[in-house]
Design a protein that fits this description.
The longest helix has 31 residues. The protein has 533 residues and is mostly helical. 70% of the residues lie in helices and 0% in strands.
Length: 533
Amino acid sequence: MTDPLLAPDLDRDAVVRWQERLAAHLLGGGLLVAVLAALPTAPTDLDRHQLPKETVVHLATWLAVALLRPGVAALSRAARVGLALLLGATLASAALAENPWLALRAGSLTLTGAAALLTAHRLAARGFGPILLHWLGVTAFVGTLTGLAQAYGLQLPNFATTRLPGGSFGNRNFLAHLAAIALPIIGLLALTTRRWLGALVAAIAAGALVGAIVLTRSRAAWLAAAAAIGVVVLSLLLARRKGALPVSMGRVALLGFAVVVGPFLVLTLPNDLNWRSDSPYAETLTGIANAQEGSGRGRVIQYRNSLRLAAAHPVLGVGPGNWPIRYGDVAPPNDPTWVWGDAIPINPWPSSDWMALISERGVFALAGSLLLGLALAWRAFGRLQRAGDDALRGAAALGVLAATAVVGAFDAVLLLPVPLLFVALAIGALTAPAETPEELAAPSRWRVALPLLLMLVSARSVEQTAAYLVAGSGRETNRMVWAARLDPTSYPLRIALASRLPCARARSHARAALALAPEWPASRNAAARCGVR
């Protein structure tokens, strides 16, 4: 018979376990929904995908954090210092940003990513890491299938309309980036899943991911996939030398076969992609390091100018999300990444996470990010010394970190909601230590403040997405007016109304657009049209 004095403790533990399980499914399921989320139409195609994805990521993380209220005790001291540097520099930089609304949007994603990492650490320490890893595998597979389906003729309202085959990601590069980062997770699942049917599904997913990476012709993803595979193989060889690697050769052969067959199938089956080149894949391979022309030349110019921007603002940068607002300060007239005639003359992010960090948030944020990444990599490396599946998890974590670092050097990755949440959950689940007593202590001020901050962040993101939902395609002026009332800080909405409406009604929108982007040609022209100064 159960001692009644123990019943309260047993009941409390059951409640905690239920909350943890729910939080794991909220994060994993939220990531899958975020991958598929997109508005059917919107004033700008990029935000048609990114705004709803951001909203889902914020909401899922907020709900999970509200359930668990994770602390930072699971992180090593170096990781805590790195995270504090990153968040502190982001906050200070945002406070001085020229456009505070862009700073809020970009800084909010950083906060949500940090919260997701801490929550995944907590869940993995309590034994719920496998739930997160399976959700990550399902999400990567399903997201990849949307791109492959589009490449072979399927078109749905939430699919990309440009830069095919982007599927539900909205851009083929975004799809390829996530596929490269997810490869070590899929490989881990193929090697550690108990049943052969699960291993077979994971192997098929690995083949699909590699095939999609090849099909997208994303050079950054090709390099990142090679880096991930190389780091994982080297890590496993090191673990094998120490006798800590119980890997079935049959599973390895199955995985290797799938990785070879996947690209073969996508290269031989006819698709609906209309590449201009007669040999598109060979051209991408031979030009993978070409920095003299095309996008490679554009990146070199953009990196050089971004470093000039960083040199002018070395400590705190120009503010999170404010790189496009200040890039005109350093862009020469022949910069191919700056389109003077467009309402939005440049992408919202530089073509590199690292360039974004140093130019937008300064040297302290960059140092904090590097310290956090190295601390997590060191913990993953320590797992290679252990027996059993721990060595495999350590190798997978190192592969994810390597892929993220490489692809982030050539494109915006952790600046986007889906890959940010994916990497946070993956690293959190793969590098979590055994639970520490501090993790079960009474909630600190941080644990109370974090859910409140995420709630405010989520509410702001819902407001932005709702405004785009009201705006529809952006063709109906009345809908755009109502959308601008819902989110008066949206530059695309304001500049569209400032350009279309009669001056009597356009002046307030022109004034707002000029305040949001004072150096952009479109906002200056709209202001000049109606005599706004």
